[in-house]
Design goal:
The structure is a homodimer. Chain A is an alpha/beta fold. Chain A has 11 helices and 12 strands. The longest helix of chain A has 17 residues, at about 305-325. The structure holds a DNA duplex.
DNA sequence: GATGTCTAGTAAAACGATTTATTGCGCGAA
DNA sequence: TTCGCGCAATAAATCGTTTTACTAGACATC
């Protein structure tokens, strides 16, 4: 925002932003009048239609746009939300963000996005900085929030109960049930579970849901078949390594249920390299249904989370909470439903060959 | 940003934001003094160390944070950039954005991200709206810009020459050369090319580079083997369809070079479904090297673009241009180099079996 | 005693809007 | 003639900073 523009407006586009005052001067009106008209304020009722038209015509002609900073300062509203994600370039967060943007932009809101990469200092600092930037609300995606904030918050897959926070969660009980029933129905009895990283908000809840589902099906969860992702890069590397180790230990199993599709894809690679066929020898179930899941080879059987929709719900919920700040009856939890997507990475279990 | 906080600060975190004036009152100093001290302004030289300490101590104690809106309004700086992308949840843009964020946040800048989904009205409108939000500069990723903007602009894979715009481009000549030499060296002579969508900025440049490379290698580009992606969703669907059609026409070829990895993955699926083996019958080369490329089955041979690095370069370039607004000697074009990543989706050509 | 130089700050004007209270003015009614 | 009222607008305060120009006192110098 240079103070002085070096060149004159070349031609049609008047690039020198024009203030309300200049516009008022040009119209021989006061800034107050122009402002009232532009904002269609009820106080403008007494201003004759003719003048109103004159004002609007001039505004169009000079392409007047109110200075955002000044307006926000005065109204104490920024039409800006904060979005905190662990990592932008990752399927999960990107899809949720996409859903958020979709809706926000329609409503004239913008979002400031930050990613914390699980660094505790950033996790602590970012919400504060965003508040300093006058955000009116915050969406935290797969991000553990520590404290209450002075603005409405929606946490996508946050599982802590914090005052002022609406938790948007998947029905993990149902998700686990769907996957487990699918594997069970195919005759799988020795199933590997790849748990999520410790820092991932869903890890704990999902794991507990899986164990419940197993119990319900009379399926024993063998401790030696339970492994956990380690490391904070969002890469199939992690699922690959953990599966390699499992194979190196000589464990026997017929199916594998991964924490997410990314990990499942890595696991498949490890299985193949060990000479095992998927799904011939081992059935694999992923989680999330990221865009590439359908185009894996074999196409991935997975539990779909409606990620984009979750972003949209988060945005609408937050905006309506912002619109009614006094209302304390906002939802504390919103649950969305998963969907089992059966593709080609699972099939009938054969007897344990290894 | 509710005007009145309903509840008192519960305990330790003083959530009621405190103004410079209140702080000054508390200290029995003028706002001016406090401001000078807080900003470590050279004009604060005459203020004794002791007073300075007193001010800073109080600021810490009350957790004072200058109001962003007021400060920006006064200084005419927003420490905010605009980022325009076609689509957030897409490998290419997400990686570039990730690189941008990485660097920006370190520098105290934030970014407002919008996605236009190739809608012409949004393409026209968004830069204006962002300007209204007082952005100091703009990064356009794979987005055709129409007009000159009153702020510095960096276009990632923009190929138009517009005053005030720094174009950050891949060395497409080299990229095409690498891929073509690779295929040529493996003995491939009949190669399918999947061109990018018309709206994608790289499409034209890359295609021209490919033809040049072919000529250089004495390789004929058969028109019947050239197809183009249609549709604006970032899905492997597109590559799948176009390849299916090609196969339905009964074309014969031994290799396929796709516009991007996403399309290559779709193409592979279509080839397999037609009973062809990759790379046994058909070698496939992708482009970009998205995160999942290495974990495809077969692992994808592809031309890597340093996407994350491109984001970083875009951000540093833009910030340095913002820091020196008068300097007209900024780079008009920055070129980054591709890298050939040979994996398992290409191999020696066999004689044409079909 | 007049002048100059430091020191330690302050007053006040921006920045560009929004909004409340107020002001002439013309006109009909008492 | 005076009062009240609707009309058409405006003046001025405000949002919370930043920044330039200024001041009041203390001390030193000529």
């Amino acid at each position: 925002m240079p103070r002085k523009r070096a060149t004159h407006s070349s031609s049609d586009s008047p690039e020198q932003p024009l203030s309300l005052k200049s516009l008022a001067d040009y119209l021989s009106l006061s800034p107050a009048t122009v402002s009232l008209v532009m904002n269609r304020s009820p106080a403008a009722a007494s201003i004759p239609r003719k003048t109103q038209e004159r004002v609007r015509a001039a505004a169009r002609r000079f392409n007047y746009r109110p200075n955002f900073l000044a307006r926000s300062l005065r109204r104490q509203r920024s039409f800006t939300l904060g979005v905190v994600v662990p990592e932008i370039s990752e399927g999960y967060a990107a899809l949720v963000m996409s859903g958020i943007e979709d809706y926000l932009l329609r409503e004239g809101y913008f979002s400031l996005v930050v990613c914390h990469r699980h660094r505790p200092d950033l996790l602590e600092e970012y919400p504060k900085i965003l508040l300093g930037r006058a955000i009116e609300g915050l969406i935290a995606v797969d991000t553990p929030l520590e404290r209450k904030l002075p603005v409405p918050v929606v946490a996508v897959s946050g599982h802590r109960i914090i005052p002022g926070v609406t938790n948007l969660v998947l029905n993990h009980r149902r998700a686990a049930g769907l996957a487990m029933e699918h594997l069970h129905a195919l005759g799988h009895r020795r199933i590997v579970f790849i748990k999520g990283q410790e820092f991932s908000s869903d890890t704990r809840v999902r794991w507990s849901a899986i164990r419940d589902a197993a119990r319900h099906l009379d399926l024993r969860v063998a401790p030696e078949l339970v492994v956990q992702l380690q490391g904070d890069v969002p890469s199939s590397e992690l699922g690959y390594h953990v599966t390699q180790e499992l194979l190196a230990r000589g464990e026997k199993f017929t199916a594998l249920f991964a924490f997410n599709d990314i990990a499942a894809i890595g696991a498949i690679r490890a299985l193949r390299e060990a000479g095992l066929s998927v799904p011939g020898d081992i059935s694999v179930v992923g989680f999330d249904d990221i865009q590439s899941a359908a185009f894996q080879n074999p196409a991935l059987t997975t539990v779909r989370q409606p990620l984009r929709k979750m972003g949209e719900i988060a945005a609408t919920t937050l905006l309506s909470r912002i619109a009614n700040p006094a209302d304390t009856s906002y939802p504390k939890e919103i649950m969305v439903e998963p969907e089992m997507v059966v593709r080609a990475s699972t099939c009938q279990a054969r007897s344990l060959s290894r």
